[in-house]
Amino acid sequence: MNTDKMLEIIGLNKYFGPTHANKNLSFSVKKGEIKGLIGENGSGKSTLISQIAGLYSSDSGQMLLDGKPYSPGSPIDANNRGISIVMQELGVIGSLPAGVNVFLGRTKQFTKNGVVSLKALNKAAAEQFEKWDLPKVPLSKLTDGMMIETRKIIELARALSVDPRLLLLDEITQSLSMNNRNKLYELINKLKAMGRSVIVITHDVEELIRITDTITVLRDGEVVGDVVSAETTPDEIKHMMVGREISGDYYRADTTPEYADKVVLSVRDLTVPGEIENVSFDVHESEILGFCGLSDSGIHSVGKAVYGLIKPSGGSIHLKSKDLMIKSASKALRNNMAYVPKDRDNEALMIRASIHDNFVLPSLTELQGKVGYLSPAKLKKMAQDMTDKLSVKCTDIYQTIDALSGGNKQKVNLGRWLAKDIKLLILDCPTRGVDVGVKAYIYFLMKEAKNNGVATILISDELTEVLGMSDRLIVMKDGTVADVIRRDEDFTEQSVIRVMI
Amino acid sequence: MIKKSRITLQDIVPFAAFFVIFFFFAIVSKGRMLSAYNLSILLDQSIMTIVVGCGALFVVAQGSIDLSVGVNLALTSVIATWAANAWGGWLLIPVALLVGTLVGIFSGTVVSKFKVPSFMLTIAMLIGIRGIVNFIQSFIHTQAIPASMSILSEPYIKYPAFVLIVIVLGYVFEYTKIGRYCKAIGENETTARFVGVPVTFMKIVAFAVCGLTVGFGALFSLSSIGGTSQQIGLFFEMRVAMAVFLGGVLVTGGTSAKLYKVLLGSFSITIIVNGLALIGLSQTQYSQSIQGILLLLILGVTILASKKSKKYAAHPEDDEIDAHSEDQAAKA
């Protein structure tokens, strides 16, 4: 047995009902190795690391940790063996403060006579943040209402607090903004220097190659390739992932902004205390207006405020096409606006309801007949047509959303708005956690909407995405507009980052 | 009635419970339950539960609950009787409907605007309004409604009115935006708000509809009993809540809320009460305990069944099912 293999997996199988999620998977991680795991949505990545983390049991096969058999019965079990995980979908408990979330299930050590000492707990949590150099988080605040990014960092702190020898990161970078991504990269390097191992899952091929030592590519639950990161190219990886050639170029090809003169929405001096200050901009017909910035730049709040979800303390949101002020989300909904939130599972979709119910929700007003009648046949047809058009992978339209993969959830999330006659589309990180195939499709849908005259506000943590799609790009810093760059000007990552920081 | 591609265990249990209860009491009562006379009593006893249950469904679908329907019924009955006796019998109807609705609007406004959990607010109302009812009853002398208004209990008025109310509520709940918005709020309030559902307004509407049905309920009860009493509306909220949950609507509301379930649950609970009376248990000290145990049993089975079917529903064809919830469960 090769002793420098820390974790070895031999012939692992996992079934979910009729679905064979992991087929005879063999794979290993060395001590001090940063391992990348990549594959399309549904290729079995998360299933694999969930088994390593003790969330699922395996149906057959063997896992060896330091050469000894390893079959964790629970995440706590895995923690005790030095393995911890940060899940893709959010795993913090909203009604508990951040500090408690860090030590979730392990509060015993702070308990005296049945009472948990929050002071000791928060102190220990603060030490963890200090030790791993994580961005500061208000530890005694409830995690409910915190930004995705903050919640993700709390999860990261939780995983790190067990002092793991093997850390599993499932799609974490996509929830982070530029500056915190860099912190994460530093953290990964630090772990490597300490002789710890990390398994990273991400859909961003370039990032994966940059930060890992080796990459394992999965397809349909099987390993299709093991490569050394320094010797591969993004195109090679993509090819392995989908099994066919895929062009790396799914953004816009043109370099000139192209939009009509007609202003759809005019925002003036929009201020939300503590979030954004005096933000003014116009969006035109057929325009994609990008927003980017660091984590405290307030870009996500702009989207929420424009759709009437947070009450601004000052400023105006003037929907020119209808000549009215947007003061509430229901008014926005009634007036052909659409909003796709960043947090798909908690803010956008009713995950325990069916695909059908999620599809029709924003269009109910349009689907009404006489005396408000919603014909079941009409609703069903709409949901079925959209499911077919977007090729959502599902057994039927009555399947619940939580059984879908991230990419397919996002198709429903975005697609249900495109079924409407919308004039303004607000997208907040529309490609978070989706694979390249779905990503390309989402960009295609955005271009299609643009051609139909829809004005789009594209808010994103992915610089390449806003650069690739926008006509104009608003760079925000500390809640204010720092710069507006047109597509035909200095439209590069360097110039944007210079303004951002 | 409802098109469903998959019938889950969860959907079957309320039906099974209904049939078990039905046959159990039919047999134990030696067939007396099925006599024409008793069947008509069964129907009469279910009417109020069904009507108010249909209204309460709007509230429960949103994941809220209205525990003040019993006391609202008492208040509505007392005020309507008072008004009818003071200024004319015909006032009974508009006053009953108005008072019931106003109480509902009040609850809805407090729940939605001040974010008070509906459970706590309506429990407070249950106690507070009972005091008001006792106060009013202490100085009005007559408890009986004007004789002219007992016409409301005539079969040719009562049954068509009942059927019409259920059809209208069923239509609004199952086939209009209002019902769908209520369910969306129950599924995930944040999601509903982010899509643009007017959540605050819809909560007020739901409680108002519930209050309105209490107004109708008061009219049915006043006309059949002939007036009010000290006991009016006592424990009625429990009967309504049990009818809704026995029918298989989940406490969290959402898409599990369906009108037919209220009908089913109402009949089940009425048969239990009626059946216990038939076999001579209603006068004993055990009857309430027996009711309680039966309800617990049926609800337990329903919840178990819903957990089972959830497991089947979450068959992940891919790697991204929400394992985090299991994660939380394991860690918590």
Strand arrangement, major sheet of chain A: 6-9-10-3-11-12
The share of residues in extended strands of chain A comes to 25-35%
* Elements of chain B, N to C (H/E): HHHHHHHHHHHHH
Query: Which pair of protein chains has the largest interface, and what are the residue counts?
Result: A-B, 74 and 45 residues
Classify the oligomer: heterodimer
Distance between the termini of chain A: 49 Å
What is the CA-atom radius of gyration of chain B, in angstroms? 21 Å
Number of helices of chain B: 13
Shape of chain B: globular
- Range of helix content of chain B: over 70%
Give the total of domains of chain B. Answer: 1
Quickly describe the structure.
Chain A is α/β, with parallel strands linked by helices and 501 residues long. Chain A contains 18 helices and 22 strands.
Secondary structure elements and their pairing?
The complex is a heterodimer of chains A (501) and B (332).
Chain A: E1 5-16, E2 19-30, E3 34-38, H1 45-52, E4 60-65, E5 68-69, H2 75-80, E6 83-86, H3 98-102, E7 111-112, E8 115-116, H4 118-131, H5 148-160, E9 166-170, H6 178-193, E10 197-201, H7 205-211, E11 214-219, E12 222-228, H8 234-242, E13 263-272, E14 276-284, E15 288-293, H9 299-306, E16 314-319, E17 324-325, H10 329-334, E18 337-340, H11 344-348, H12 355-360, H13 364-367, H14 376-389, H15 406-418, E19 424-428, H16 436-451, E20 455-459, H17 463-469, E21 472-477, E22 480-486, H18 493-500
Chain B: H1 9-28, H2 36-61, H3 69-87, H4 92-113, H5 118-139, H6 155-175, H7 177-187, H8 189-195, H9 199-225, H10 236-246, H11 259-278, H12 287-313, H13 323-331
Helix pairs in contact in B: 1-11, 1-12, 2-6, 2-7, 2-9, 2-10, 2-11, 3-4, 3-5, 3-9, 3-10, 4-9, 6-7, 7-8, 7-9, 10-11, 11-12
